[in-house]
Amino acid sequence: MVWENQSDVIAMMTKEVERGRVKCHKYWPEKLDTPIETCHYHADSKCLDECVPDLFARFVRIHTCLDFHNTLTFITWPDHGTPRSSEQLVRFIRYMRAVHSTGPITVHCSAGVGRAGVLICTDVILSLVEKDLTVSVHGHEKSGIAFLDMFFFVKKQVSE
């Protein structure tokens, strides 16, 4: 999906393991500067500057198709909860936009309907606000956001 759509940014909204459960399998090298070799691709990664709190940024290069991916991980979002403040998520989105240049942004969490939905919804809302367009989340309570506290988190951001 990432290669097919030429996505240059992957936003990972989960840690690999949370509460003792695997939430995401590694699709990048275990150690920085130690590549992964498979019959289909060669991948290596480097850590980007950690200039944004709550974010781990990794640059992954896939050699077979000369694709480059920025894998951004929001590291302080609790499983089945919300970030401490909307400012954390807004900083993450601004950094995500800054490193994005081509194709769609790929977003994932562990199940795909909680944190990923909140990130996408918040990014859309920020885009609307930046363009001075009307923002309304009423009637969309079940549109990609799994938990009510996450929906209220998004709704609170609209009012801020």
Walk me through the structure.
- This protein is an alpha/beta fold and 160 residues long.
- It is 26% helix and 22% strand.
- It has a six-stranded mixed sheet with strand order 4-5-6-7-1-8, covered by helices on one side.
- Helix 2 packs parallel to helix 3.
- Residues 1-160 form the Tyrosine-protein phosphatase domain.
- It is found in: Nucleus.
Assembly annotation:
single chain
What is the count of DSSP helices, taking H or I runs of 4+ residues?
3
Number of DSSP strands? 8
Order of helices and strands: EEEEEEEHEHH
Amino- and carboxy-terminal Cα gap:
35 Å
Radius of gyration: 16 Å
Mean pLDDT: 78
Q: Largest sheet, if any?
A: 6 strands, mixed
Structural class: alpha/beta
Please report which band the strand proportion falls in: under 5%, 5-15%, 15-25%, 25-35%, 35-45% or over 45%.
15-25%
* Uncertain residue ranges: none
Strand order of the largest sheet: 4-5-6-7-1-8
Proportion in helices: 25-40%
| Overall outline | globular
Question: What is the secondary structure topology, with strand pairs?
Answer:
Elements: E1 9-12, E2 17-18, E3 21-22, E4 36-37, E5 42-47, E6 55-62, E7 67-74, H1 86-99, E8 106-108, H2 115-130, H3 148-159
Parallel strand pairs: 1-7, 1-8
Antiparallel strand pairs: 2-3, 4-5, 5-6, 6-7
Helix pairs in contact: 2-3
